[in-house]
Amino acid sequence: MSDHSSVLNTRSINQNSHADTDNINENEEEIILQRHRKDRRDLQAQIQQMKKQLNKNDKQRKKKLDEDIKKMEDDFDQKCQDELNEYRNRQQTEVSNNLSTLHLDEHTNHIEEQESQEQYKKSRKQRRLENKEKKRELDVLAYDPKNDIESPLAIKRRQETAIIEKKLNERHLRIYQVTSDGNCLYAAIVDQLKRSNDNGLNENIRNVQQLREHVSSHLLSNRLLYQPFFPEDDDYDLYCKKIRHQNIWGGQIELQACSKILSQPIEIVQETGPLLTIGEEYSNNKQPLILTYHRYMYTNGEHYNSTRPLKLKENNEHDDDEEDKWEQCALYSLNQVTGSLCDSLCFSETFALQHCLQLTNSKIILLMKNVTSNNYSVIKSNRLHFDHHHTDLLFHDVIQSIPNALRTFHDILNFTLNKRFAMQLNSTDHHTIRRIYRHDNIKNKFLLLEDLHQVLDKYKDYYDRSLASDLTVELNTLYSLLDQHEFLLAYYYRTKKSMMPHIYGWCGHLYLQEYLTPLNSKQIEKQMHKTWYKRVWLAEKLLDLIDNIDNSLHQTLHFCDMKLANLGLTFDGQVKLLDLDMAHFDRHIPIEMMNCSTHEDCSYFDCSGYCDRKTQKCHSRRINNNLQVLCEKIFLAHKENFDHGLLDDIPFRMNDVLTKYLKQCSLPGRYKTTLIPNGAPISLMRLMQAMFEQETRNIS
């Protein structure tokens, strides 16, 4: 129906309504007149009754009665006329108002009709756009071929992947998987930029979010170039805004924009068709960024991956060892991890990988060199991936309540410290986090390092999604570190610089620690064999270290894997604990309440335990101690380490006394009737410390 016909219909309806109103008004006036006639008859009856009672011979009273009757009739007529006039005036006012309302209603109805149609059109358009975005933003779930390996989709996927891999092999490349979260195109380009020989990754584009912002701005500023290629029903400005703020997928237009922004060609390797090159005009100046395009890799949409060299380059033999570092940088670019180390590790090229010391699913140790200061450090972690099995995160989605998230993290922190350190702390004490995580390594300082009660009160009824997103990333990062025993122990006691390795910072689950030369290294072993002075100097340092871990912490720290490989030397001559995996506090050595049949069942490496034959349970306390193991394993080398003990070949002047001390220290007696050695007394430690100090002073 047209707008004009709608208005005519509205007028017709209103006119009919007006006619009905007039009929109602006429009926009401007739009722009033009928009542007036009835009242007049009643008045006449009253007058006749008054006349009958009058004496006809009494002229004076008759005159008075006539005057009263006339007055009564006049009053009645006036009353009826006033009532009728009042009614008619009221009706006239209502009619006038109704006429004005009719004109206003006609205009209003016309406007509402137009707005309704416009709103209908807008809603329809919006619905189409929203449905399209829902499809784009739907989480793409990886298909598991174990469920249906012969399904048509699985067959297509294998065929597509095989063809793409064959094309890449011809160019000595391989597929590098990128997370399928709506950012795949941008993440693949950022990954290529990091590996580009042309250093395309500049200071303005270092991660996915920055690339999205550049693409959004480029599309808005070049509207005439790109808008004709958009569907007519798409809101161009809204789409550009969503590129910046949402994880919507990218396609041909976004690839064209990226090529223009970077002034670099982008090549797309796909199953069918020739190689697609975008930005060929830049081919003479820069190497292309090479991506792969997959139609069937995931069940609900297309996907882009990055590529990597198939073989290691001769001048970069550590590419495979750097894989984990690059994976961490990709997560940082996607804003999935955070940390003070991320920028230096991923973008500034401050650190260069020198050697992979250990790389397993349960431990990473990478030797790094600071190219500016030429100092060495190590990247460590007790797990290979940040979230390998999708179960290693504290929060899998953006937190919906900041107070609840903070309470959860504080509870976990309190539980972890109690479990590992036997500490009972207030779960709402904000100083707890401050003691563990240094102030300059925390991004959300106000939320995590200030008074928790004030923070909870401020955000009780306030929610900021951007802040919640940042806090989710940081809490997941801190949780990944909190789960690592070595990090937690070294960082909590970071002020104990004489015994704990220094930690510089972290990025996700990887943390950077000072490099310590293991005491079993060939260069140190060679030095120890040269002179007695070197050996007695090292023995004094080892005694000081044992003294510290026994007496300077809140409890004795039991070093259950005492060997030179787990102790390290700093460049300035300090001896520190190098490997803390087997270091535990009292009652937290993993032997408590274990079932046992022999005493050996209750021993945890060098920490000897006792088996109660009656209950067949291990006692919770250790029987020997750190000093006893130091004397037995290192000073006398009864088990391992050097070909001979560190304190073999004692000079004649101190041979008798020191030999006696070492014997008493390594075998201070047996526990009950067992062969388990008791702990060496601290008095022996003090005697040997004084002896070694005097000896080094005399020699020097």
UniProtKB/TrEMBL annotation:
What keyword terms does UniProt attach to this protein? Coiled coil, Disulfide bond, Endoplasmic reticulum, Membrane, Signal-anchor, Transmembrane, Transmembrane helix
Q: Identify the stretch(es) annotated as Disordered.
A: 1-26, 108-133
| Feature: compositional bias, Polar residues | 1-18
User: Could you list the residue ranges forming a coiled coil in this record?
Assistant: 33-82
Compositional bias ranges of the Basic and acidic residues kind:
108-121
Q: Where in the cell is it found?
A: Endoplasmic reticulum membrane
Q: Does the keyword Kinase apply?
A: no
Which intervals hold domain OTU? 173-310
Spell out the family assignment given in the record's similarity comment.
Belongs to the DIPK family.
Name of the featured protein: OTU domain-containing protein
Write the lineage as a comma-separated list.
Eukaryota, Metazoa, Spiralia, Gnathifera, Rotifera
